[in-house]
Design a protein that fits this description.
Layout lengths: L2 H15 L3 H20 L5 H32 L2 H13 L3
Helix pairs in contact: 1-3, 2-3
């Protein structure tokens, strides 16, 4: 994909996710703080740590699904010629 298409795709993903980078940082900081507290707890609470890790995985999977849909929408909007050029670029190892 050319630079414009990559930027468009990035915007589509952000819009679909309703993402706010500050909110992302805040959520990450909150999860890190909770995990740090749990790691300091004696005795070690495996179930609680697993729950935090599971929440993180679920968030990542949710975002990946949204990104996949945005990519499919972008690819579907391309002309057959542009998709063919993209396929050739992929085979050559380019972006």
């Amino acid at each position: 994909m050319d630079r414009k298409d990559r930027r468009d795709l990035g915007r589509m993903i952000q819009k679909a996710q309703g993402r706010d980078r500050r909110m992302d940082r805040d959520l990450r900081a909150q999860m890190t703080a909770v995990l740090a507290d749990l790691l300091s707890t004696v005795p070690f609470d495996r179930t609680a740590v697993l729950a935090v890790l599971h929440d993180e995985v679920m968030t990542i999977e949710e975002r990946q699904a949204i990104a996949r849909e945005a990519l499919l929408d972008k690819l579907a909007s391309m002309t057959p010629e542009v998709r063919a050029k993209l396929a050739q670029a992929l085979l050559k190892g380019r972006k």
